[in-house]
Amino acid sequence: MPFVSDWRGERLDDGFIAHRIGELSDYQVLNGCLGEVQAQDEGELWLLCDAQTRLSERIALAESTRRRP
Q1: Please, is 29 exposed, middle or buried when counting C-beta atoms within 10 Å of its C-beta (0-12, 13-18, 19+)?
Q2: pTM of the shown model
């Protein structure tokens, strides 16, 4: 199963699940980033992982600008 980096996926009886390999900051979690996603097929799972990766990158950028004096 081709995967987005930073995610580990597996097949379940009723679909697929992926877990983020790295940790999220509290700020990322507070703003909607997930550590786990579930889907019915591989394509959906890939899209969810990609979307969550992009979201976590953008939220991390917002977090870094928030810390500026």
Answers
A1: middle
A2: 0.87
Q: How many Cα atoms within 13 Å fall on the side-chain side of residue 56? A: 21
Sheet containing 15-20: order of strands: 7-12, 15-20, 36-39
What is residue 48's predicted lDDT score, i.e. its pLDDT? 96
Span 9-35, pLDDT tens digits: 999 999 999 999 999 999 999 999 999
Residue with tokens 């995967």: 3
Distance CA 56, CA 60 (A): 6
| C-alpha–C-alpha distance, residues 26 and 42, integer Å | 29
Q: Give CA–CA dist 23/16, Å, rounded.
A: 21
Q: What percent of the chain has pLDDT over 70?
A: 91
